[in-house]
């Protein structure tokens, strides 16, 4: 029997935490291991309970969700995956949270089925970056353009085909969409992504998006 996915819920509103806990604990294959009302509590509980996934709110007292994500993702293995729960008025935090190590984003008003699916996707090592979130990430790069770097910086050892795959990942395409556009088998796309994760030292798809932009391979204008 497969062990359940262990989830830590971090939100400063008790009602929200309770609602998420009921949702998680009644879903097959998921279980809640703790609740945190502050960023500081989230870091402490993550260290003590070693969850697979942390549902992280951004605005919390003592330490915000971005700082808490950075602390949690800096812990020794096994590092939990952090799924950030955000609202439309928090778009400016998308890039900062990804840089801190978050594996994905969901809107707080997402349907319950989407939240449960998101937890499973992130726990499996996939980054949860819908095209709409990727577009917000592009907008964030446009507002905070990093210093100019030669195109491809940090991509040593990445093949031309892997670069093509990386560009499409950064544009928000799914594996089947990448396979269709490049006329590859889905299994081949998955292999290329595995090579990219290893070569770039990335934990998941979200970090590949960051690498694509920071290397200059993809720019907001493109």
What is the CATH class name of the largest domain?
Answer: Alpha Beta
Q: Please work out how many helical segments DSSP would assign.
A: 10
- Describe the global form: globular
Q: Strand count, sense and closure of the main sheet? A: 5 strands, parallel
pLDDT under 50 segments (min length 5)? none
The N- and C-terminal alpha carbons lie at a distance of 47 Å
Counted beta strands: 5
Superfamily (CATH H level) name of the largest domain: Response regulator
What percentage of the residues does DSSP assign to strands (E)? 5-15%
| Sequence of strands across the biggest β-sheet | 2-1-3-4-5
Helix content: 40-55%
Number of domains: 2
Task: Report the CATH architecture of the largest domain.
Answer: 3-Layer(aba) Sandwich
Order of helices and strands: EHEHEHEHEHHHHHH
**Fold-level CATH name of the largest domain:** Rossmann fold
């Amino acid at each position: 029997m497969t062990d359940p996915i262990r989830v830590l819920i971090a939100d400063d509103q008790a009602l929200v935490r309770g609602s998420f806990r009921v949702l998680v604990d009644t879903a097959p294959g998921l279980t809640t291991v703790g609740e945190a009302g502050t960023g500081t509590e989230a870091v402490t509980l993550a260290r003590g309970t070693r969850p697979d996934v942390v549902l992280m709110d951004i605005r919390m007292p003592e330490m915000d969700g971005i700082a808490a994500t950075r602390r949690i993702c800096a812990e020794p293995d096994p590092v939990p995956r952090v799924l950030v729960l955000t609202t439309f008025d928090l778009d400016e935090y998308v890039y900062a949270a990804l840089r801190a190590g978050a594996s994905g984003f969901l809107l707080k008003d997402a349907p319950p089925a989407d939240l449960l699916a998101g937890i499973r996707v992130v726990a499996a090592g996939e980054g949860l970056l819908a095209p709409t979130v990727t577009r917000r990430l592009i907008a964030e790069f446009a507002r905070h353009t990093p210093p100019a770097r030669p195109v491809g910086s940090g991509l040593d050892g990445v093949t031309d085909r892997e670069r093509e795959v990386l560009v499409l990942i950064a544009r928000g395409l799914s594996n089947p969409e990448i396979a269709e556009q490049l006329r590859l088998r889905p299994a081949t796309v998955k292999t290329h992504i595995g090579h990219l994760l290893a070569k770039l030292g990335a934990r998941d798809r979200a970090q590949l998006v960051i690498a694509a932009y920071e290397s200059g391979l993809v720019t907001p204008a493109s």
